[in-house]
Design goal:
- The protein has one domain: TIM Barrel (Alpha-Beta Barrel), CATH 3.20.20.
- By secondary structure, the protein is α/β, with parallel strands linked by helices.
- The longest helix has 20 residues.
- Helices cover 28% and strands 16% of the residues.
- Bound molecules: flavin mononucleotide (FMN).
């Protein structure tokens, strides 16, 4: 099946098109360093054509989740190096997903400081802190020089990703985190060069892309967008034209791939929700397209056969099936993901999902 055929991206050859989607699992250390359990988890999934790591913070001001990793200290870089070495040893390929959470944080994570955002608009909802759930707070509107620093932080993190041995990076511009907060008009009411028309609201994304392209060959950079997303209280009143503009502009960057997510939540702020995102927006994009959100073995294969996408990222299926490509190949039964153990905890629901007994690629350690 086409889903299991290899694909060339720049000078990288992915052995199949079954991609492991970025998945926050909250099992790194309190210092946001990848743990030995993280090494085992990613290594178990080295059969993926490409692993995209969980969201990884570019700076201490960009964190918002308990026990989620960063890539801004030496210990974190060394921790990631152990992950990438092991994944490579097993024949895998791995990109790190870089993000800044913006307003999706809490002073508890930031040494008492306010989270930052394009505008001082408090998101609805709660954040899980080390002391349990707390309401989001009103963020501080970023000054121009602070935005420049965030672009620089992404550049430094991109450099750190090379030191850590990654094969490439994915810029997380989806799911209501900082870049997405700038793009969508519900969270961005600025009146300067970062607000108003879409050229301005997408400026941060393109500045970050320019910066990280000085570190990585552009074909080793992916971008993730959620054009119909309302997660983390974002949304855009004209999402079709907003995201069409961004996707068409991305054509100029010769990226490794564009990663498009289907909406995971019901429509709210977003007045123009498209449910099959890759099908609708893919026609505006000329490079490699990665589709994600709700795909099975057969629907994933179909979207590739129909040429509406080149790869499919699987989230929950990869949580539960470390050997997902082999299971797809054999059309074998799949383990079901256990939602109770998605976020935080130990090896239960993380590294203890069984491999197929007759899997030739069985990784026990
Ligand atoms: C436990 C969990 C953690 C997630 N963490 C991230 C993340 O860190 N970054 C991200 O871009 N998406 C994240 N997502 C979204 C997934 O990458 C993916 O888009 C979603 O699970 C839909 O794909 P699926 O239907 O194949 O599971 C997460 C989803 C889940 C279930």
């Amino acid at each position: 099946m086409k889903l299991l055929s290899e694909i060339k991206i720049g000078d990288l050859t992915l052995k199949n098109r079954v991609i492991m989607a970025p998945l926050t699992r909250n099992r790194s250390t309190i210092d946001r360093v990848p743990s030995s359990l993280n090494i085992k988890y990613y290594t178990q999934r080295a059969e993926a054509g490409l692993i995209i790591t969980e969201s990884t913070a570019v700076s201490p001001s960009g964190v918002g989740y308990v026990n989620a990793p960063g890539i801004y200290t030496k210990e974190q870089i060394d921790g990631w190096r152990k992950v990438t070495d092991k994944v490579h040893e097993r024949g895998g390929m791995i990109f790190v997903q870089l993000f800044h959470v913006g307003r999706i944080s809490h002073p508890d994570f930031l040494g008492g400081k306010q989270p930052v955002a394009p505008s001082a608009i408090k998101p609805n909802g709660q954040v899980y802190t080390y002391e349990g759930y707390k309401d989001y707070v009103r963020p501080k509107m970023l000054e121009l020089d602070e935005i420049t620093q965030i672009v620089e932080d992404f550049k430094i993190a991109a450099k750190n990703a090379q030191t850590a041995g990654f094969d490439g990076i994915e810029i997380h511009a989806a799911n209501g985190y900082l870049i997405n907060q700038f793009i969508d008009d519900v969270s961005n009411t600025r009146t300067d060069i970062y607000g108003g028309v879409v050229e301005n609201r997408s400026r941060l994304l393109f500045e970050i892309l320019e910066a990280v392209s000085q570190i990585w060959d552009s074909t080793k950079i992916g971008v993730r967008l959620s054009p119909s997303g309302v997660f983390n209280d974002v949304g855009d009143s004209a999402s079709k034209s907003t995201y069409q503009f961004i996707i068409e502009k991305l054509n100029n960057y010769n990226l490794g791939y564009l990663h498009l997510m289907n909406p995971m939540m019901p429509i709210d702020h977003n007045t123009e929700m498209i449910t099959n995102v890759a099908q609708y927006y893919g026609k505006f994009y000329k490079g490699h397209l990665m589709a994600n959100g709700g795909y099975s073995r057969d629907t994933g294969n179909e979207i590739i056969e129909s040429k509406e996408a080149d790869m499919v990222a699987y989230g929950r299926l990869f949580i539960a099936n470390p050997d997902l490509p082999t299971r797809f190949l054999l059309d074998a039964e799949l383990n079901s993901p256990d939602q109770e153990t998605f976020y935080g905890g130990n090896e239960k629901g993380y590294t203890d999902y069984p491999f197929l007994a007759h899997n030739p690629n069985l990784i026990k350690s």
